[in-house]
Amino acid sequence: MRNPGPRRWRWMLLVALTAVLTAAMVACGGDDEEGGSSAAGFKTVTIQAGQPIKIGISSVISGDLESLGVPIAQAAELAGKDVQIQGFSIAFVRKDDGCSSEGGVNAATQLIQEGVVAVVGPICSSSVVAAQPEYEKAGITHISPSATAVVVTAPARGTPFATTLRIPANDGLQGIAQAKFAYEKLGARKAYIVHDTDVYGTGLADSFAKEFQRLGGTIVGREGYEKRTTDFSSVVTKIQQQNPDLVYHSGFYAEATPFIQQLRRVLPNVKFLSGDGVRDDEFLRGAGKDAEGAYLSQPSPPAPGPEFDTFKKKFQEAYGEDPSDSPFTAEAYDAATVIVRALQEVAQKDGNNLRIDLRKLNEAMRKQKFAGASGPVEFGENGDNIGKASIEISFYVVRNGKFEPVQ
Amino acid sequence: MFLASTSFWLDQMVNGLTIGSMYALIALGYTMVYGVLKMINFAHGEVFMLGSYAGFGILVAFGGESIAGPMVAVAIAVAMAGAALASASTSVVLERIAYRPLRNAPRLAPLITAIGASIFLQFLVLDVTSAKASFYPRIFPGGSIVIGAFRITYLQLFLIGCSVAMMLFLSAIIQRTAVGRSIRAVAENRTAAALMGIDVDRAIVTTFVLGAAMAGVAGVLWGLFFLQIRGSMGFLPGIKAFTAAVLGGIGSIPGAMVGGYFLGLAETVGREALSTIPGLNFPNEWRDVIAFSLLVFVLLFRPTGIFGELVSRRA
Please, where are the H alpha helices in A288-379? Predict the structure, then answer.
């Protein structure tokens, strides 16, 4: 090496700068929504004789949240199994969105290129927010089985996206219910918030904080973390300093597991409350005895009714597992059902081919109203499921390694 | 703004030293390989991850949660040795098939194969484990030592102690053995070393083995402390350790150690200290920003890092 000079440091600097910018964007809470675009770009799709009608699925197929995403994809696929529309079968195309913003956009681009007529997903709010403009441009209606962030149907640009629908109730409801539960049922007055810095974690924490303070509680501290964080020791030290009576967490089980383990080493008795991203069997398996006593909420868990039972039976027959073990499976089944039903209404024979007007498909999807496996399905103007507006948020507590409903 | 107590700062310092030990151990691999080959082995984070998995397998074979009494010490020692071995073997294979054929290629080529190897190993493990996390048995005795406001758990003490011991061991090998001498010679000038009759290939493989063994041990320590391990676990500690290596002065062994601890403390104590300045607040989500900003500042103003003289003299 005879040429030391500053030259060889340049690429390292580049790597470093990129890392700083990425980290800063995450730290600032990514609300990087670009301003408005015009109306949705609906087209008409023609499907050749012998070809299937393609429905996309944007979910987490690999990686840390696989055990959340795969059952959702499986449940969605059930709704189109053995269905014939004017003699055309339905094929599902899975794309991995990794629960990230970039992943959501990539999956959207790939699905649009594949020629899907509608999409189930993305499953995470951050992916939905990033992918919305893509779906809108292409005129492809997508329906999320699990994105609960308020911003999904109330985007920063003001006008909701015509092509975005969702099945679950939004976090506005969940956060408010969590705050009430914490204040009234658990008697908490001082809460410490620890949240994933993505759209879901931040949004849920915001609505919890607002309501908790309105009720008279105090937020004694707030810390965020990035996905894949394992070291929570300095957060725990800070919590210990403030001595809250409740630790509120919003995020996913992959990070909630090490967090609660490290929290319990120092504060074995502080109350812990989290949301639907953590109500997963993986949390129980990983956190073990440290999960005991943790409170978790979930909007609109599948109501035990005939529709849910039918779905459950189908799911068990197809995959040999209980769909209730994984959240949002019934919602995914309903999401795909909305698409299938709408297709049945609008798909038109054109000689031997099948023509689908995507605008009509969008309208038909928005008009669907039925009792689904996850509860009532009916869409409001902004794409929220107003059938869920009055549904209670359920609370669970971990006892003996199981989620027990709190009465 | 709150005025923190002494115990708060001491706790944060222990947190910083704990994570810093692991950064330092991993950083050694980056810095040594850079020292001899002038390349960044980006698959090093995955070598660390594989070590962690190997240690996990050994602990499970010893009986997992049911290990008790003196067997705990035996099991952990065997797990660390096994992890070091597994990481070292991985590294040797990587060196042989991914780096050696490109030794005289442009500098960018091995960098790209390193990134490829990193992605390959990460997704291989994710696939094999169905992307599910595995959990280390909680066998390490709980409890802590308290001296006034100072408090450290046995586990943290063990982590820091182990890392320091490993680093002293490595320094001794590099400074006092014939193998170490040949590594230093190759780092200084490969051609000249070859002309002096040093087996360059062997020196390079030894470098990979030593660095990987450190990462393997770090993997077990990580598992014992954080309990949760998964295929994607190597990524973040990997780039943090790379940052630590650059901070310390890439190519310098004491630099990597100091850089590791420095980074660990900057993320915890440093971040909290910045937050005490009125008007500033850096909650936990800023720790990566602070870490990588440090990297940028070092590269801008002192690209050779804290212990950089050695590198510049060598170059």
Answer: 306-319, 329-346, 358-367
State the pLDDT at residue B3.
56
Angle among Cα A293, A294, A295 to the nearest 5 degrees reads 115
Using an 8 Å CB-CB cutoff, list chain A residues near B2: 241-242
Residues of chain A with pLDDT under 70: 1-9, 25-39, 300-303, 390-391
State which residue of chain A sits closest to B291, comparing Cα positions.
A20
What is this model's ipTM? Answer: 0.89
> Does B4 touch chain A if contact means CB atoms closer than 8 Å?
yes
Domain limits of chain B? Answer: 6-234
Q: What is the pLDDT of residues A185-200, one digit of tens each?
A: 999 999 999 999 988 9
The number of C-alpha atoms within 13 Å of B61 and in the hemisphere containing its C-beta is 12
Query: Given CB atoms, is B271 within the 8 Å cutoff of chain A?
Result: yes
Which span out of A275-289, B43-57, B98-112, B183-197 was modeled with the highest average pLDDT?
A: B43-57
Nearest to B38 among A1, A66, A265 (CB): A1
pTM for the model = 0.83
Q: How far apart are CA A343 and CA B173, in angstroms?
A: 71
Domains, chain A, with CATH or none: 44-169+304-388 (3.40.50.2300), 172-299 (3.40.50.2300)
Q: For A289, which residue in chain B has the nearest alpha carbon?
A: B138
**How far, in Å, are A38, B61, B245, B313 from residue B306 at the CA level?**
54, 43, 10, 14
